[in-house]
Amino acid sequence: MRFVLILILIIFCEGLRAQPATLAPPDSSDRLTRLARQIEPELQGRTDRLSQYVEYFRAQLANDKTLFAFEVAATQGDDGPVVLKGFVEFPETREGLESFLRVLGFDEIENELETLPSAELGEQRFGFVKTAHTLSYDRPKIPHDVVTDCMLGEPLYLLRQEGDYLLVHSQDGYVGYVAAADVHRVGPEAFDRYPTESSVRIVADHQLDSGLMLPLGAVLKRIPDNQDRVMIALPTGEVVEVPSAKCEATELPSDNIEQAIARASQLLGTPYHWGGKTVEGIDCSGLVQVAFASIGLNLPRDSYQQFYLGQLVATRWHRSQLRRGDTLYFVGPHGKIRHTALYLGDDQFLEAEMPRVTISSFNREHENYSPKRDASFVFGKRLW
């Protein structure tokens, strides 16, 4: 009898060892129900707690409010429907919040949430800071708190206008309200032209004759000149001369980027394994983490943590500035960042997903086109 038990145990262990390393991420199909039970175990929502449910959803499934636009008010009159007003950035968040409230027993919902960018902006959904700097605030009305400071020439992704303020994504990805008077608004083509690869970084404050201060750290477009001068085009189109001692050329460390891509590409075909970081199995954020760790840049472990790093260079509605080596971020069905990938250029990206590491594409004309990733992409960031 003992021999039979030992034999069964050996066969069982060998079977486990033979399983491929393709452990999938946790199923998200019942995530809303599990989250709802944490705040209301009986799934019987109460009208007087609607604001708490909205905030709980935001904290759990709508990402950091400083990086994702989210301003929602939920109300319910006597025996009336729940009315959702305000705005969110993506349809996944809008639909996810409604589904979450339905799980809590609110059957009648009037979802009036606006998804951004606002249609009222038209084609001019982009801009550049045209003053020495402009502060970004958490709300357009006083009193308000500063979110970040945006410098001259900084690109802005516009989301909506409220009075004299524009809600924007600044270069670091933060969401905040800036004075509309400080922004030079442009369409997508002009946005892509400034600055170009020929740019300079201001290394010491320099005041122009007009009184405009070029602040330390600003990156501005350089105009080619045959003489030993540095001519700069401001976002508004004005061309000015800057002492060469007060600026330096910006350069993209392409060798490091290519090295990171090359090392990540060695993992092509590696089985997907939730939480893995080796050739035996790897997940999406592990792939990106390993790629940059190979050149000495240590990133946080998870995709939603990695998103905090780098310069914002692409949104769902504008991807033309993506370059090789940029990190890509995607949301799940309820609006939370759930996936990341490494951009290779030509609409292609390297990603770890079930069942293995592969190269996918945003381009419908490519054989490896991924409709799922095309639809769920939200942001691209540059670590250099």
Automatic annotation (TrEMBL):
Its EC number is 3.4.-.-. GO terms for biological process: proteolysis. It is an enzyme of class 3 (hydrolase). Pfam families: NLPC_P60. Transmembrane segments: none annotated. Keywords: Hydrolase, Protease, Thiol protease. Residues 254-384 form the NlpC/P60 domain. PROSITE patterns: NLPC_P60. GO terms for molecular function: cysteine-type peptidase activity. Belongs to the peptidase C40 family. This is Peptidoglycan endopeptidase RipB. The gene is ripB.
